Amino acid sequence: LRHGQTALSVDRRYSGRDDVALTEIGIDQAARAAGRLANWPIAAIVTSPLRRARQSAAPLAAATGLPVTVDEGLIETDFGQWEGLTFTEASQRDPELHRAWLRDATVEPPGGESFAAAERRIADARAAIVADHPGQVVVLVTHVTPIKSMLRVAMHVGPELLYGLHLDLASVSVVEFFGDGGSVGRLVNDTSHLR
Predict the structure, then answer these.
(1) Catalytic residue at 160?
(2) How far apart are CA 21 and CA 14, in angstroms?
(3) In principle, which of 29, 94, 105, 166 could form an S-S bond with 4, CB 3.0–4.6 Å?
């Protein structure tokens, strides 16, 4: 589950490690997502440590009675000095670096984290969560990069997915990781609960 709307997402600003809260719309989106997911056979709820993710997990925890576990590995990419900037503002501030960053997952924003580094961190978190919950449904409440990273791995596609897939606020995506090492994507960017 991607977190709900924040003030930064309204203006489509890079929102990595800034610990921003949900807007009223975001709170409503989280409640609607909880209404959709509450009847699933959920064994655990795991969230990014950032406030917007924890706030998005809270209604689901209330509806299911499950505790929320915080996993630092599910935090969003660190956008460094681009944090809070729009795409246009970042590309004007650092035109060559921004162009390179859009083509190469190993390129870091100034003072930030590359997508490749973020994916390594997310892979470690995913492996631990899968090992701790074999055969179980776990809801991860997190951000764009962790969700895209898990989708990319599950569907066996390259880093192009990081740049070519849009994920809506409070969207649900479903992946399965099997005990034999196989994996599949089952659902991507579903927002039917928000209509």
Answers:
(1) no
(2) 15
(3) 29
Query: Could you give the 3-state DSSP secondary structure of residue 144?
Result: helix
Q: Are 93 and 85 within 8 A, CB to CB? A: yes
Catalytic choice (3, 108, 119, 143): 3
Tokens of 129: 């969560």
- List 76, 108, 113, 119, catalytic entry: 76
Of the candidates 70, 62, 61, 82, the one whose C-alpha atom is nearest the C-alpha of residue 15 is 82
Q: How many other CB atoms are found less than 10 A from the CB of residue 24? A: 9
Is there a catalytic annotation at residue 76? yes
Rounded to an integer, what distance in angstroms lies between the CA atom of residue 75 and that of residue 52? 11
Look up the pTM and report it. 0.95
CA-wise closest residue to 57 among 49, 65, 45: 45
CA distances from 81 to 73, 152, 184 (A): 21, 26, 35
